[in-house]
Amino acid sequence: MNINVVKRYEKRVLSVKKYTHKKKLIAFMNAKASLAIEGMHLTPSEEKLILERSNGKMKNDEFLAHAIELARNV
Predict the structure, then answer these.
(1) What pLDDT does residue 14 have?
(2) HSE on the CB side for 64, CA within 13 Å?
(3) Is pTM, for the whole model, over 0.85?
(4) For residue 49, how many C-alpha atoms fall within 13 Å in the half-sphere facing its CB?
(5) What is the pLDDT, as a whole number, of residue 21?
(6) What percent of the chain has pLDDT over 70?
(7) What's the average model confidence in pLDDT over 29-47?
(8) Cβ(6)–Cβ(17) under 8 Å?
(9) Which of 14, 15, 13, 16 has its CA nearest to residue 1?
């Protein structure tokens, strides 16, 4: 779950704002464009892996295992 701390109240209660699918997709496209400026490009399998993790379809442990496997096969 992606959260963004919006405000801290006096009693130390956090107000949490969840990102929408559209905002996650925009953030992903911005990150992808930043990588392209640096001359790095994501493969379709890397894109799929990142999008599955950001949409909550995959836990962090699974994501890291798949990312390490992709890195070994490069």
Answers:
(1) 56
(2) 3
(3) no
(4) 17
(5) 86
(6) 77
(7) 95
(8) yes
(9) 16
Q: Counting Cβ atoms within 10 Å, is residue 8 exposed (0-12), middle (13-18) or buried (19+)?
A: exposed
Asked whether the beta carbons of 22 and 35 are under 8 A apart, the reply is no
| Residue 54 reports pLDDT greater than 60 | yes
Whether residue 58 contacts residue 52, with contact meaning beta carbons closer than 8 Å, is answered with yes
Query: What is the distance between the alpha carbons of residues 26 and 11, in angstroms, rounded to a whole number?
Result: 34
Cα dihedral across residues 6, 27, 54, 65: positive or negative: negative
The helix (run of H) or strand (run of E) holding residue 37 is: helix 21-37
Q: Which amino acid is at 20?
A: T
Alpha carbons 36 and 40: distance in angstroms, whole number: 5
Say if residues 71 and 47 touch (Cβ distance below 8 Å). no
> Which phi and psi angles does 19 have, rounded to 5°?
-80, 140
Q: 14: helix, coil or strand? A: strand
